[in-house]
UniProtKB/TrEMBL annotation:
Residues 175-357 form the Tail specific protease domain. PANTHER family: CARBOXY-TERMINAL PROCESSING PROTEASE CTPA (PTHR32060:SF30), TAIL-SPECIFIC PROTEASE (PTHR32060). This is Carboxy-terminal processing protease. It comes from Flavobacterium frigoris (strain PS1). GO terms for molecular function: endopeptidase activity; serine-type peptidase activity. Keywords: Hydrolase, Protease, Serine protease. The lineage of its organism: Bacteria, Pseudomonadati, Bacteroidota, Flavobacteriia, Flavobacteriales. It comes from the Bacteria. One of its GO terms (cellular component) is outer membrane-bounded periplasmic space. Gene3D superfamilies: 2-enoyl-CoA Hydratase, Chain A, domain 1, 2.30.42.10, 3.30.750.44. Residues 98-173 form the PDZ domain. Pfam families: PDZ_2 (PF13180), Peptidase_S41 (PF03572). Belongs to the peptidase S41A family. InterPro entries: ClpP/crotonase-like_dom_sf (IPR029045), PDZ (IPR001478), PDZ_sf (IPR036034), Peptidase_S41A (IPR004447), Tail-specific_protease (IPR005151). One of its GO terms (biological process) is signal transduction.
């Protein structure tokens, strides 16, 4: 089946929005709010009992309860959601910032589990596992030729810290099987992708989500950049759908002066909680730039709003998602949870950036897609603001509420990367899979190649560009890359660099031609 190029941004953009429903969390609560005291609650409980005991056919009442909970939450707001037990453990792990395992990035290639790259200094790397290795068995569990789900694969490789698993490996480069014993350990799940210098005195930190360890990771990156000479700081929140509110607040505290308001929340009962910066900030004076786009949401908007409303820095990019609701996680005994909206948050000037959800959840999430059609991602003048939601910062700058953070410097999407369809494609998983497959054919081509020579080699060759175009056509994607050759080659080279040399190399290549980064560096001169 052919994929229509017209709909590619919407399809890929929708996948980025999945995490928004889980963003902006307060601390979890295990209090039991669900005792059946009212008549309505008693009626629901009795109905389930009637079905369980009297209904003519066997029925899984647990599934009925799940559907009921989903329907109830569906009457509230788009971010009050039910998380079933099968998903809750994975979501909690992702937000925790680490897990116990063997430390590999893998890809199910054809019918086998192939190692893209072992985690640096992780258990697998220390045991000698290499990129391209296939894991055939974990203990006595066969992992190839079975079309196993990701959950099954993860459960075979994870375990208690310090426990040992014997892996049977097929090493393609040597055409032999080997057995390796690996002691499982804590593996970090980074929420800060990279902290690098853009020039002699401009630091850059990319945050992909706000997890339990984000502030700690940010501080480590900031300290490193300051030692390297950073006097200005770029914080990249593009495609960051949010997470823990407290982590964003702590980062804002590092950038704002004592007693400056960071954010305030207001509950159903009208209780207002204000959070102020303290004296401890490590970067209260240098220039600050925050990069956002249409997929920056929740905690990302809290941080961007605090910087903008306090006249602390410059917001660069496109209007953010528009999520100004705060959730609290409440756990059920079966391992499931509900994330219930318990408050609205407001930026320091008093604006709510929550966009309307009065037309229902489906229309709410489609609003981001409609920005393509309305031209907002291409022209700043297409951004619709409401004059009645106008606010002033301490220095008199006008800012608006009612639907996201409007940037101070607008960067249209086609200027940022070229053809929007190609950009979304080049930031999708298909690129990583393609690069792995190319490397897997003959890794010796790059073995021992210095990074500088690698860059020259990739710039001089069109081989991988041509091969990637063929892969798209073979997979039914009718996207002609001819007019976007420079963009495609850059992202392909960056992904090759990531798999061969590490995450930092990926960003060094991509950021050189990044329009938002260019705007920041140009504005500093």
């Amino acid at each position: 089946m052919k994929t229509n190029i017209k709909y590619l941004p919407i399809l890929l953009g929708a996948t980025l929005a999945v995490g928004f429903a889980l963003g902006g969390l307060l601390n979890s609560s295990n209090e039991n709010y669900f005792s059946a005291t009212s008549t309505s609650k008693t009626k629901l409980n009795k109905l389930i009992d009637f079905i369980d005991n009297e209904y003519v056919d066997e029925v899984n009442t647990d599934s009925i309860v799940d559907i009921t909970v989903d329907n109830i939450l569906g009457q509230l707001d788009p971010h009050s959601v039910y998380v079933p037990p099968s998903e809750q453990a994975q979501v909690a792990e992702n937000m925790k910032g680490d897990f116990v395992g063997i430390g590999v990035n893998f890809y199910m290639y054809k019918d086998s589990l192939a190692i893209i790259k072992p985690v640096e200094n992780g258990p697998s790397a220390k045991a000698g596992i290499k990129a391209g290795d296939r894991i055939l068995y974990a203990g006595k569990t066969k992992l190839y030729g079975r079309k196993l789900s990701s959950d099954s694969l993860f459960s075979s490789l994870k375990g208690e810290q310090g426990s040992v698993v014997e892996l049977t490996i097929y090493r393609k480069s040597e055409q032999k099987k080997i057995k390796v014993k690996i002691k499982r350990d804590v593996i970090p799940l980074k929420s800060v992708d990279v902290a690098v210098l853009l020039d002699q005195n401009t630091g850059y930190i990319k945050i992909n989500r706000f997890a339990e360890t984000t502030f700690e990771e940010f501080k480590i990156g900031l300290t490193k950049l300051k030692k390297e000479g950073a006097k200005s700081l770029v914080i990249d929140l593009r495609d960051n759908g949010g997470g823990y509110m407290d982590e964003a607040i702590e980062i804002a505290d590092e950038l704002l002066k004592d007693k400056q308001l960071i954010v305030f929340t207001k509950s159903k009962k009208g209780n207002v909680k204000k959070t102020y910066a303290t004296k401890k900030g490590e970067f209260e004076n240098g220039n600050v730039f925050v990069l956002i786009n249409e997929n920056s949401a929740s905690a990302s908007e809290i941080l961007a709003g605090a910087i903008q409303d306090n006249d602390r820095g410059t917001i660069v990019g496109r209007r953010s998602f528009g999520k100004g609701l705060v959730q609290r996680e409440m756990d059920f005994n079966d391992g499931s949870a509900v994330r219930l909206t318990v408050a609205r948050y407001y930026t320091p000037t008093g604006r709510s950036i929550q966009k309307s959800y009065s037309k229902g959840n489906e229309e709410y999430f489609k609003e981001s897609e409609s920005r393509f059609e309305k031209g907002e991602l291409y022209e700043k003048d297409s951004i619709k603001v409401v004059d009645s939601l106008k606010f002033k910062t301490p220095k008199g700058k006008i800012v608006y509420g009612g639907g996201g953070i409007v940037p101070d410097i607008f960067i249209p999407i086609e200027v940022e990367h070229g053809d929007v369809n190609v950009v979304y494609l080049m930031q999708s998983g298909i690129v990583g899979n393609f690069v792995f497959e190319q490397l897997d054919q003959d890794r010796s081509v790059f073995k021992g190649l210095p990074y500088v020579d690698f860059v020259s080699k990739m710039n001089a060759s069109n081989l991988y560009f041509s091969q990637f175009q063929k892969k798209l056509y073979k997979n039914g994607l009718e996207i002609n890359l001819t007019n976007s050759k420079a963009i495609v080659k850059r992202y392909l080279m960056a992904e090759f660099a990531r798999q061969l040399y590490g995450e930092t190399s990926y960003y060094e290549i991509v950021l050189k031609e990044d329009a938002m980064v260019k705007a920041v560096l140009k504005g500093k001169k």
